[in-house]
Amino acid sequence: MERIYISVILPLxxxxxxxxxxxxxxxxxxxxxxxxxxSLESRAxxxxxxxxxxxxxxxxxxxxxxxxxxxYIGVVDEVGITPEVEINKIQPVxxxxxxxxxxxxxxxxxxxxxxxxxxxxxxxxxxxxxPPSKTNGEVSKVLSEERAEERHAKNIDRKIAVLTxxxxxxxxxxxxxxxxxxKARTEATRAKYLSxxxxxxxxxxxxxxxxxxxxxxxxxxEESSSCSKPEIQLDFSLSAAQxxxxxxxxxxxxxxxxxxxxxxxGSGKTELHIALAKEALTRGRNVLYLIPEIAVSRQMxxxxxxxFGNLLLIFHSKETPARR
Length: 324
Prior knowledge:
The protein is an alpha+beta fold. It has helices spanning 105-117, 122-129, 132-183, 187-218, 240-254, 269-282, 294-308; strands at residues 2-9, 19-24, 28-29, 35-36, 56-57, 62-67, 70-79, 91-92, 95-96. A six-stranded mixed β-sheet has the order 8-2-1-7-6-9. Strands 3-4-5 form a three-stranded antiparallel β-sheet, with no helix packed on it. Strand 6 and strand 7 (70-79) form a beta hairpin. Helix 1 crosses helix 2 and helix 3 (132-183) packs antiparallel against helix 4 (187-218). It is flat.
């Protein structure tokens, strides 16, 4: 068994990045130098299921590890490192969370920039960006999707079993009609049996088609009921420069890249924020809009309230318990 050593960022206030190892047999390197999992001794989300495909273990991959007696979801910082501590003190990775989203290189670089700027650990930045409630929500969502897929597959299996039993019964009746037609003493009786046989053959063909459709549906993901999209009307139009910035930001978001929008006061950054928030909400997502001061939030609350209405929720330390 070959050991691969990796450094893992944990959502903790520690000044170093802990080292862990993965045990594998037959890992290979991809063309870009990433280590591809061959048969790592790990499980995805402790579900007991191996991933159907192998994904490279890269910087930003999510892993489950143990630290100081507790279990955490960490982010891989470096792969294939040389340990700086005693080998026998390095713990193994519990599992590779392949179903959780990989953190992009750009976001990790942003974490390090924030940690350096605010003189804190990168683990604290990770915890702020991915609080336990968010990480647990990701895991719960994945497990819920897996259970939904299992229920969907079981329902399809039952449907196929019922259709197959019905088709077998129809085929048996077709056989009996054939024998009756052969033994018929008159042409009228024989024609009657053949007509009934033809109708049964059409029924059998239709049942066969339904079985084939069910087999295809079994491998298709279960569609969730679509939620009604909120109707949001903007009270402004983007300028040419704002439209260009909007398109560039939208393109970066599609590639899961973080964006820093920089502009002087009055250049129209807020309008861009609102336009992007509208798009996210209409796609069924959530938006967290942070304001540096409570005094400024009062003004923004009025402006955002005119556009987003009841979709807007305000939270800060000056809010009364009743309003919270």
